[in-house]
Amino acid sequence: MNPTVQSYFDTQTCTATHIVFDAPGGQAAVIDPVLNYEPKSGRTTTKSADQVLAFLATNNLQLQWLLETHAHADHLSGAQYLKEKAGGQIAIGEKITEVQKTFKTLFNLEQEFPVNGTQFDVLFAADAKFSIGRLTAQALYVPGHTPADVAYLIGDAIFVGDTLFMPDVGTARCDFPGGDASQLYHSIQKLLSFPPATRLFLCHDYPPAGREVCTQTTVASQKASNIHVRDGIAEADFVAMRGKRDAGLEMPYLLIPAIQVNIRAGAMPAAESNGVHYLKIPVNGL
Fold first, then answer.
1. First and final CA of the chain: distance in angstroms?
2. Virtual CA dihedral for 270, 275, 276, 282, nearest 10 degrees?
3. CB neighbours of 226 closer than 8 A, spacing ≥ 6?
4. SS3 6
5. How many structural domains does the chain have?
6. 110 in a structural domain
7. What angle separates helix 181-191 from helix 235-247, to the nearest 10 degrees?
8. Phi and psi of 38, rounded to 5°?
9. Residue 277 lies in a domain
10. In a domain, 55, yes or no
């Protein structure tokens, strides 16, 4: 059985959130939900997540899963908010523990912050299988962008997270802690080994001038024309390209707040004695 997919795009962070379901009135998963955040004021809003809730309600869908492809550095996760409003289990790949250890040290988080992934309801081992209503799904381990990335194979579709972008944009950066361009190359080859017609749903799009936003492509299209990893591009060439390109990239402007929230499964740090939640800025730490 193949999934029905409804996608929403947050223009502030260029992030696509995908709602995957078996049929109207059935079960659904939400992949990479967004909590809107204004860095100048430090205020959050729920516009993007409320779009998801409205679609679930309109189609009488039961939210079964909130699936994260990794701990994002470009947007805050809306998983906790959606869970509070509609239920569901928050899941991510089991290697999230490596990311938690790295950033607990960088941000000097509270001693009691656990680095065992218990902030999430489910940690998927590589190639773990699960179901979304009548849909069969599998968590594919695809490290490289970070050491913890997973993609979700659901019917004839793969939700690739931050591995591939549209063919005219290329591939994800590998310069975050634990990132590895060689790993990313092999992860992408794993994804591109699926049948040519396999639908690939992307987490981001950064369209060149003159092209509309698009967050769906195919294995065939990627193999034919991805500017970084189309057929015929060798691993060594990809690694060299990725290293040179990453060296010139700025850090995502929401990295500092996003990572602190996303390693907590979309929850804020505990409120302090005045009832306010605080996020840290490591001066000269990045």
1. 45
2. -50
3. 164, 167, 170, 171
4. strand
5. 1
6. yes
7. 120
8. -105, 110
9. no
10. yes
What is the residue-level pLDDT of the chain in tens, covering all 286 positions? Answer: 999 999 999 999 999 999 999 999 999 999 999 999 999 999 999 999 999 999 999 999 999 999 999 999 999 999 999 999 999 999 999 999 999 999 999 999 999 999 999 999 999 999 999 999 999 999 999 999 999 999 999 999 999 999 999 999 999 999 999 999 999 999 999 999 999 999 999 999 999 999 999 999 999 999 999 999 999 999 999 999 999 999 999 999 999 999 999 999 999 999 999 999 999 999 998 8
140, 150 contact by CB (below 8 A): yes
Cβ(62)–Cβ(40) under 8 Å? Answer: no
CATH code for the domain of 218: 3.60.15.10
CA distance 258 to 185: 26
Residue with tokens 């369209």: 207
Whether residue 271 is contained in a domain is answered as: no
**Edge-to-edge strands, sheet with 15-21:** 4-10, 15-21, 27-31, 62-67, 89-93, 122-124
Domain that holds residue 56: 4-261
What's the CA gap between 157 and 200, in Å, rounded?
Answer: 6
Q: 16: Cβ–Cβ under 8 A, 6 or more apart, which residues? A: 7, 8, 9, 10, 32, 201, 202, 203, 204, 205, 215
Entry pTM: 0.97
